[in-house]
Structure formats: C-alpha cells, structure tokens
Amino acid sequence: MTAERTPPAATILGYPRIGPRRELKHALEAYWAGRATADDLHRTGRRLREQTWRRLAALGLATPPSNTFSLYDHVLDTAALLDAVPDRFRGGTALDTYFAMARGTGTVPPLRMTKWFDTNYHYIVPEIGPDTAFRLAGDKPLAEVREARRIGVATRPVLLGPVTFLLLAQAAPGAPAGFAPLDRLGDVVAVYRELLAALAAEGAGQVQLDEPALVTDLTPAALTAVETCYSRLGRSPSRPELLVATYFGHPGAALPVLAGTPVEAIGLDLVRGAQTLADPAALAALAGKTVVAGVVSGRDVWRTDRDRALAALRTVREHAAQVVVGTSCPLLHVPYDAEAETGLDPALRRRLAFAEQKVAEVVELAGLPARSAPGTPLPAAPPPAAPATLPEPGSRAPYQVRAAAQAAHLRLPDLPTTTIGSFPQTGDLRAARAALAAGRLTAAEYEERVRAKIEHVVRLQERLGLDVLVHGEPERNDMVQYFAEHLDGFAVTRHGWVQSYGSRCTRPPIIHGDVRRPAPITVRWARHARSLTERPVKGMLTGPVTIVAWSFPRPDLPLAQVVFQVAEAVRAEVADLEAAGVSVIQVDEPALRELLPLRRAGQDEYLAWAVAAYRRATSGAADRTQIHTHLCYSDAEQILAAVDALDADVTSVESARSDGRILAGPAVRGFARGLGPGVYDIHSPRVPTGAEIEKSLRAALDALPAARVWVNPDCGLKTRAYAEVEAALTTMVAVARRLRAEAAPDPGQAAEAPAASEK
Ligand code: MET
Ligand SMILES: [Zn+2]
Predict the structure, then answer these.
(1) What residue ranges do the domains of the chain occupy?
(2) Pocket of ligand 1 (CB under 6 A)
(3) Which residues are listed for 5-methyltetrahydropteroyltri-L-glutamate binding in this entry (predicted)?
(4) Is 602 left (phi over 0), alpha (psi -120 to 50) or beta?
(5) How would DSSP label each residue in 339-369?
(6) 23-367 and 399-743, same CATH topology
(7) Which of 342, 424, 524, 565 is the most exposed place for a label (fewest CB within 10 A)?
C-alpha cells in the first residue's frame, strides 16, 4: 500500500429536516389549520434548508447533501416527482395533491403508511399500476441545488433509488394479478435518466441514489433490477457521478452486482453491515470504486469508537480506489445536537453524539492519518443481539382455561367494543404539563387535572356505550417516554426530537444503565378510573420490545438483555395493577415487527427472544386477568405466528389503514385467540362511515367466531379531537350492536328463519 493517498474526504448521507426546534412541524400544522399560507410554509422550509447547508459547510463538509428536506416524506416526494399520483388525489394545487396523498381529504382516505425498514420513521406507500404514466413532474431536487448554490454551497442531490422506490411501492388497486411495481422499472429509469441530465446541467457533480432495499433478501428478479437499473443509469449520455448508498445492513449478493455497473461510488453501512469487512468477495468487488465508508452510526446516539472506525477505514482503503469517511445511513433518525441537552448529566452528555456531533466525527476521522493504528485487528463486532442464555419467560394456563375464567369474570357480550388506550391529548393537558415543568403548577394541582381528565374520559365512554373502558392516558406525553421517565437506567432529552411521520416527532429516551422500576408507575391512574365506573377498565402498559425499540439502547449489552431488563419492570407493574383489582391489562407492542432483522437469517432468533420477553412481562397474570396486546403499522400478517406465541388473550391490530389486508390473508383463520382488527384509521381527521366499519367487521366475522372478534379503532386516539372521536366511536358502537344482534338472534327467531344469515 502506498504511504499516502489523497486525504479522504468526509460526508454524511442525510440530515434531520424537522428543524432544531421542530420549526417544520409548527409551520406544517399552522398551514393545515389555515393559520398560515403556502408561502409561509415554503419560507420556513427554505430557511431550514439554508441553515442546514450553512451549518454543514461550517463544520467542514465540502459537498453537503441536498434534497434531503421534505414537507412530509421523501418516498412521497419521489412519487410526486415521478407523477405517480393516483387520480383520486388529483385536483387543486400540487401542494393540495401532495398533502391529500399523505393525509387524505374529507372524502378520500390517504395512501397507506408504513415503517421505513427497521426504523420508527413512517413513509407513505406509493401506488403503482400498469398504467401509471411516469414523467418528470416537478423540480424539487433541481431547485434545492440552485437554492444552495445561491448561498455559495455546492451540494450533492439525494434521490431515492428506483429499485428501493419500486420495492416499497404497492400495486395499485385493480392491477392484474401477478403485477408488481418493479415491472415498471424501465419507465422509471427513463425518468431518472432525464432527471440526472437535468441535475448535471444544473451543475451537480455527484448524485446520491439511496438504495437501502439492497440490504434485504432480494429475489433474483430484484437483483436483476439492480443490474438493469444501474447499468442504464450509468450509460446515461450526460450525467453526474453516481453514488449508490446502501444502508441499514450489508448488501450481500447485491454488492458484486452493483459494483459490476458503471456507478462510480458505493455507500456501505459499516456499523450494522460490518460483516462486509469480513467478506473477501465483497471487498474484492470494491476494486476501482469510491467507497463512502459508513463508520459513524446514523442509528444511535453514541460517540464513535475511533479505533473500530479507523480499522474499518483501513480495510476498505486496501480494496477501494478511494475512500470517503461517511455516516452509516442518513442522520434522519437521530436528534440535532447533544450540546443542547444541558439538563443531562455531563458525564452522559460527553458520551453522546447527535447529528451535529456525528458530522464533526466524520470530518475528524477524515483528517486522521490513514495508518495511525498499525496492526489494529478487524473491527470487533458490536454486541450480539442475544446473549447465550436468557431468563425463563414463564407461562400461563392454556388459553381455553383462561378464556373461560375471563368470560365468567368479565361477562362481556360478543363483539366487545373498546379503544386502544389514549384519548385526545388536548391543549389543556399540554399546557398543564408545561406549567408543571415551569413550576407554575404544583404536582398536586397537575395530578388533579389529570384525574379530572380521566373522569371526563370514563364518563364519555359510558355515554358512548363502550364495553371495556380505558383511562385515556392523559398523563402520558408519549407511551415510551412516560415509562422512561419512571424507570432507572433511562435519560430523557429536552430537544432530542426525531421525525416519526409528517409533522409528528418523538423524543426517544436514552438507555444508559441497568433498568429498574423504583416504584409503581401507572397504578394510581388505573385505580382512579376503576373507582369511577362499574365497567371493566383496561390497564395500559407499553411492552418491553417497544420501550427499547423506541429508545436509543446502550451499546455495551446485547439488545435482548436490555429488553429483558425492561420486561422485568413491566412484569412488576402488571402484578401491581392486578393487586389493585384491574382485570384487563393491555401491554402494547406496536414495535414488535420493527426490530425484526431485515434479512431472513436472524429473524427466528429475534422473534424467539422478543416473544420470550413479552411472556416474561405478562406470564405472572392470573387466569382470569385478560391480557391484551396491540400492534400497529406492523404488517402484522407477516408475524401472526409470533403474535400468537405472545400468548395474549386479545390482540388488536391496525387493519383499516391497510385496507383489511390482515383479514384477507390466510394466517388470520388459524388465529386462536381474540383479535381486534382496527375498524377505522385514526391517522386522519376523517370520520368513518358505518358502512366502512360494517364491511371490516363482516370480514373479521368471516374468519373468526363473534366471541373472539373485538371492535376497536386501528390505534390510540391521542392525535384526534374530541368531536371526531365522539362521532367515530358512536358509529363504531352502533355497528357493533347491530351485528351482535344479527350474529346471535334469539333462539326462537333463529329456528323460524334459518336463512337469516344471508347478507
Ligand atoms: C402506537 S400504539 C399506541 C397505543 C397506546 N395505548 C395508545 O392508545 O396511544
Ligand atoms: Zn397503535
């Protein structure tokens, strides 16, 4: 190896876009509420983009990325750019159409939304059919290049790669059987060629195409698509250099395929995909290419282990033509700035790196001499997901035994109605929490307001006629953060917001030490709700997998071990709720699917320990205590067998927003416990019609007996307004009652009219 090559440059694959103080969120919500104009919204966007480019340039990035900004979602941006817009959303301005696809309108439900790989970020699922007429319909990537140049910054535009775009899309309704969006690759590539030419003309020297789908198990057809796509883009007559960024894992078989095309540069995630470094064939494929070596993690909040990073860089340098120090993935999934967290213990803060610090790290690593660590072995792998042995999960009596005990104890009707837990988080609650934090409200006064809200929610549910009530979760700003605030081993941030979807953000807590529950967390709220009504009240807990999935876990323990520590805390809480007389307890696991390894290898091991942790948390419950769980955005049909293994008595899942796919699939028929497929989507202000709810309940009744079908919305109601909630739940209860009467006519009538079940 030559002693010195050109010193490597540094880059990042993307940056947070919501604004350091969630400026974009506030601008979007003002616009949607009619309090601001489209111009106001665009002005905020421009200011945020300019701020970002200036800051990245100041931190030492020669060519920061552009087009990483989005008003809602980058997959939706791509669909809009390609004019892949279903007709039902057209009309009005381009901005109206864009938000109609994301959020629906009064009459048209929005496109489906689901999680972006194994993150907690949600993207809008494009609909592509055989007739989708792709064309270059906008100029956002070009406009951002110009915008940055006006403030003196040359950027590298970032596009979603055609293969990932099409693999994430779903077939448009009415598409012929066997049609897959990937069939349209040729037409999409043609538009990308036009776009690349336009970007070259605009002065972009390099374009980044994001292809995270390359780290999943690709079918032979998808591998061929990679080859076709990048050969054709590579042969474009006039184009910038191409950087294809793979991330969230190792590209495996896709790497030699990609490397065989004329693309100049390849991005590798060397944190979660570190095994590329130990794969001689993969390393050999890098010959002649520039590699953006992702050694600084975009998925955690910890400072980079410098020795590990340098060793990885050294390995890549031995094989690639040129190495650029990079982040493992875009920094979309980490907060802005650890230095803003002045409330954290300084010793913890020093260990943290948010986006701002990670940029400084890539710049610093790029400046270090290439061979500063002679003889450093190949980087040690991060701790394995699961340690060799895990605690016994414990088990409950067989389901049939429990079901009988619960039926006798709870005396619920068929098609029981309930909600998923949260009721609207209204302005008065947020104001009360802010006042408490600012010392303008005493703890006792705050507690009084929460109790009043619980009473309001209980009375409302009684009036609406729901069967299993909830307390409404008014005390929780967030279903994970609330538990994190009450458990040892967690730290919560002040400004550590990360985009979840559209204008929604969460502040993932940081797990930095051993997890312990110093005292009961939810018991006093559940007890208060119980005291107000004769009907059963469901206790509400967040499950161990979800608490960890929506936090930043400590880097020094196997993930499973951290999850089991949390499971122990939840188990103690379940026991205390039972002792307080709560006989229905819901332990939510909406993130169960999210942590599923992206490749098939590893999924079984994960599901085994994730399920075991859930059972550990819930298996202490008595037979007559009904354990519920809830999953959403989980593509639950993929993991229904594992959901069954959770051994919960009742499972509620998102179904309405995904058009009842779960009910159409085969798995549901074998589902042996209670199931509540959500009967309406709660992510849109739209109030569902009775017909819609009825259709979904009938589909459920086709697959399962009425005693095991639960009637509930897709998810919690915290983002809705009371007026919408009342209207929607009134309809839901009415439809449930009607079908209940129909499913169980009185015996005399049934004998006279044997054909009464005809629809
Ligand atoms: C994202 S799942 C939400 C479940 C929670 N119990 C709620 O209703 O808000
Ligand atoms: Zn949910």
Answers:
(1) 23-367, 399-743
(2) 420-422, 473, 479, 540, 588, 590, 630, 632, 715-716, 718
(3) 25, 120, 504-505, 550
(4) left
(5) GG-TTS-HHHHHHB--HHHHHHHHHHHHHS-
(6) yes
(7) 342
- Quick one: how many helices (H) and strands (E) in the chain? 26, 20
For all residues of the chain together, what is the average pLDDT?
Answer: 93
The closest alpha carbon to 95, from 138, 33, 157, belongs to: 138
Percent of the chain's residues with pLDDT above 70: 94
Cβ(9)–Cβ(359) under 8 Å?
Answer: no
The DSSP string of 111-138 is PPEEE-TTSS-EEE--EE-TT-------
Reported as a single tens digit per residue, the pLDDT across 173-199 is 999 999 999 999 999 999 999 999 999
- The catalytic residue positions are 683
Q: Which two tokens stand for residue 204?
A: 């972009």
User: Can you read off the two tokens belonging to residue 322?
Assistant: 């040129």
User: Phi and psi dihedrals of 613, rounded to 5?
Assistant: -65, -40
| Number of the ligand closest to the Cα of 657 | 2
Q: Check whether 377 has a pLDDT greater than 70.
A: no
Nearest atom in ligand 1 to 718's CA: 9
In 3D, which of 312, 348, 349 has the Cα closest to residue 328?
A: 312
Tokens of 732: 């839901």
**Two tokens at 117?**
């790989």
Identify the residue whose C-alpha is closest to ligand 1 atom 8. 716
The closest residue, in CA terms, to atom 1 on ligand 1 is 590
Question: What's the gap in Å between 716 CA and the centre of ligand 1?
Answer: 4
- pLDDT for 423-476, tens place per residue? 999 999 999 999 999 999 999 999 999 999 999 999 999 999 999 999 999 999
Mean pLDDT value of segment 340-369: 95
**Which residue out of 120, 630, 655, 725 has the highest number of ligand 1 atoms within 8 Å of its CB and is therefore the one to mutate?**
630
What is the atom index within ligand 1 of the atom nearest the CA of 540? 6
The matching CATH number, chosen from 3.40.1280.10, 3.20.20.210, 1.10.3210.10, 3.40.640.10, for 399-743 is 3.20.20.210
- Give me the half-sphere count of Cα atoms (radius 13 Å) on the Cβ side of residue 477: 19
Protein residue with its CA nearest to atom 3 in ligand 1: 716
pLDDT for res 658 = 74
Cα(370) to centroid of ligand 1, in Å? 49
Tens-place pLDDT, residues 67-124:
999 999 999 999 999 999 999 999 999 999 999 999 999 889 899 988 899 999 999 9
Mean pLDDT of 217-221: 98
Q: HEC string of 716-751?
A: CCCCCCHHHHHHHHHHHHHHHHHHHHHHCCCHHHHH
Q: What is the CA radius of gyration of the chain?
A: 26
**ipTM confidence:** 0.99
- Asked if residues 603 and 556 have their Cβ atoms less than 8 Å apart, the reply is no
Lowest mean pLDDT among 633-642, 670-679, 707-716: 633-642
Give residue 642's pLDDT: 84
Only one residue has tokens 């204008």, namely: 503
Q: Is 551 annotated as a binding residue?
A: no
Tell me whether residue 621 is exposed, middle or buried, using C-beta atoms within 10 angstroms of its C-beta: 0 to 12, 13 to 18, 19 or more.
buried
Q: Please provide the size of the chain in residues.
A: 759
What pLDDT, on a 0 to 100 scale, did the predictor assign at position 8? 52
588 marked among binding-site residues: yes
pLDDT for res 633:
66
Strand partners, 241: 206
In three-state form (DSSP H/G/I as H, E/B as E, the rest C), the secondary structure along 651-682 is EEECCCCCCCHHHHCCHHHHCCCEEEECCCCC
Q: List, for residues 539-596, the tens digit of each pLDDT value.
A: 999 999 999 999 999 999 999 999 999 999 999 999 999 999 999 999 999 999 889 9
- Count CB neighbours of 280 within 10 A: 8
Q: Is there a binding annotation on residue 695?
A: no
E strand or H helix at 245: strand 241-245
The CATH code belonging to domain 23-367 is 3.20.20.210
